[in-house]
Amino acid sequence: MPEREQGTDGKPVAEPGRTTLRTLERGLVLLEAVATADGTATAKVLSRMLGLKLGTCYHLLRTLLESGHLVRLPGGRYDVGPRAASLGRHLRRRSAPSPELSVILTRLHTKTRETSYVSGWYHGSLILQHYLSDPDAVRPAALDVGYSELMHARAGSKAVLAFLPRDHVTALFDGVDLTPVTPRTIVDHDAFLAELAKIRRQRYALDLEEFSPGVCCVAAPFFDETGHPAGAFTVSVPASRFERRREWLTAQVREASVMATGLLRTGRLTVPTV
């Protein structure tokens, strides 16, 4: 057994990575919690929410304040600081869609007046690249630029997964529990594969309150020059008005996907003729 490294006082030095990485993990979780709270979180609230000792929570907050990742607001509240905001800007720049795909997204949003998204398929995940929304439109709080989780519950992800090779889908989900995000989330593997087969036939995907209660989505994939799925366009709609607009909204996201596919295959941005 190798000897533990000793400090100048003769006592063993803590093993590298043990407490340091744990502290880093706690700090990142704390930073994310502050960002989600939108400037309302206090040390006591964060301590209770994250299961941290109050002293530990204050220590992490002071560290993030000194580094510029957080700022302290009146009333003992905390919010994201300039360094954390800079990370967000870098993420947006790196994950932003091409100007042409942004034009298609703007067209989709202008026509539907519903929250509209474009996502790209990268390294085995569908990553939300950009979205446009109106004040009276709906957007699940979890969805923001860079989001890539819970692919089995999102219309855009299902639209892409349906057109991947079967072995790719198997590698992604075989032996993996499908998290029940809402009571309507598909969590049975056979039912999920049947859903993907249905999407392949109809060439669009639905999320009927599977990701967020009260919100329905429709998405359509677009394809690169090799015929592989490159991403998807999605609109999210309050469930109360989705059914009466469902057919028309489906046509709009499919138009957007046809435009994007044409762009990737020809390099030209054109509106498809009806």
TrEMBL record:
<dbReference type="InterPro" id="IPR036390">
    <property type="entry name" value="WH_DNA-bd_sf"/>
</dbReference>
<feature type="domain" description="IclR-ED">
    <location>
        <begin position="83"/>
        <end position="274"/>
    </location>
</feature>
<dbReference type="InterPro" id="IPR050707">
    <property type="entry name" value="HTH_MetabolicPath_Reg"/>
</dbReference>
<protein>
    <submittedName>
        <fullName>IclR family transcriptional regulator</fullName>
    </submittedName>
</protein>
<keyword id="KW-0804">Transcription</keyword>
<dbReference type="InterPro" id="IPR005471">
    <property type="entry name" value="Tscrpt_reg_IclR_N"/>
</dbReference>
<dbReference type="InterPro" id="IPR029016">
    <property type="entry name" value="GAF-like_dom_sf"/>
</dbReference>
<feature type="domain" description="HTH iclR-type">
    <location>
        <begin position="21"/>
        <end position="82"/>
    </location>
</feature>
<keyword id="KW-0238">DNA-binding</keyword>
<dbReference type="InterPro" id="IPR014757">
    <property type="entry name" value="Tscrpt_reg_IclR_C"/>
</dbReference>
<dbReference type="InterPro" id="IPR036388">
    <property type="entry name" value="WH-like_DNA-bd_sf"/>
</dbReference>
<dbReference type="Pfam" id="PF01614">
    <property type="entry name" value="IclR_C"/>
</dbReference>
<dbReference type="Pfam" id="PF09339">
    <property type="entry name" value="HTH_IclR"/>
</dbReference>
<keyword id="KW-0805">Transcription regulation</keyword>
